[in-house]
Amino acid sequence: MTRPSTDRKFPQGFYWGVATAAYQIEGAWNEDGKGMSIWDTYAHTPGKIKNGDTGDVAVDHYHRYKEDVALMKDIGANAYRFSISWPRIFPDGAGAPNAKGVDFYKRVTDELRANGIEPFATLYHWDLPQALEDKYGGWRSKDTSKAFADYCGYIAQQLGDRVKHYFTINEFSSFVEMGYHGVEVDLGGKRVRMESAPGVDVGREIYQVRHHVIVAHGLAVQAIRAQGAKETKVGPAEVIQCAVPMIETPEHIKAAQAATRELNAPYLTVMLEGKYTDAYLRQAGKDAPKVTSEDMRAIASPVDLVGVNVYKAAFYAMASDEAPGWFQVPFSKSHPRMFNRWLTFAPEAIYWAPKFVQTMWGAKEIFITENGCASDDVVAEDGGVYDTDRVMLMRNYLTQLQRAIDDAAPVKGYFHWSLMDNFEWMEGYGNRFGLVRVDFKTLERKPKLSAEWFREAARKNAVA
Length: 464
Ligand code: BGC
Description:
This protein has 464 residues and is an alpha/beta fold.
């Protein structure tokens, strides 16, 4: 019998982490031999980013990383998920590596280790070398997948003594769908179209683009295994589309799980099952991806861990007698949404996401690689930032996560998105996701109320 939890404790050794990504924090976009990425190009294109913001300086983490590691320590984090900028390592995407780029990540990881913070590296958080976009059309070509694997193998060699946990690719579905197609997002009452770098529409070729990205993941897993240290662990970090059972009865849970499997068909499902679902192939029709058996073997490479980013529920599901066997419950108009209208408040998603990943795919180690929200983060007269909405979100989501662990889901860590306010892609600096506030003029950092909550939760190893 599982122990009924009254103290809402997490297991010993649980990772209390914070997350960031290279383009969103580093700045130094053209320093020390770094090559251009598609995000440098996109942000420099007039009209693409709110207020014409760019990541040229971002929050200058490239120069302030020591201060930022000190901040992590101060807020009680014992793990840090960051991403490596591919064009910093290979300015042309492939070929000769840039020693100064590698050296930066060596310095960052040394600093982390010296402060008792475990580094978790993501190898791709959307900043594709522009050279590969120019040469191959980016992810439209499998040559990019191969170049990615070479870069990952090289990193595993270089950082193998310092970094034991790797995530191959962050949020496959976000950058593929927004970057190569454009997606419609529901903002509650209004729907908007969103696109991101490189900002091309490949139409039905999207099935092939998706395929190249999961092949890249698989080849990267193999390369990291072959070239990393023995105890290295690797897996994907996907924003799981989780259908949440509206009512927790066996029939609705089963329906929600089946829906979740289909919702993730192009990415998690095929990576963890090793083949595309029948429904997905039917939907693709004559545009189904052209695959080789070698591709499928790579895609199915066993992973040590599965990272899931959980912000919201894809939808609430109920069982249905009609095909496909579930009913998508529409969100009521008054359903609570956070500062970002796309973020429908649904703490149960962080219970069901790891449960389903475990029950459907037998994952042995699961990480919540992102969770969080933006807030208006006004500085009060006394200088404090009282982000009560972020505290509410964390408390409720972590309560559900703790419940999942009590129910035997093998969740080993939680990474809050984000350590500090940063460049929020198309929103520029308008959306603040940090536990730490950054004054974008002076770049001064200051922990918010939520940082205090996080520190207490990490200290107690329990929901605070
Ligand atoms: C991404 C982050 C992003 C965050 C908030 C995730 O989709 O991985 O880069 O800043 O959500 O929108």
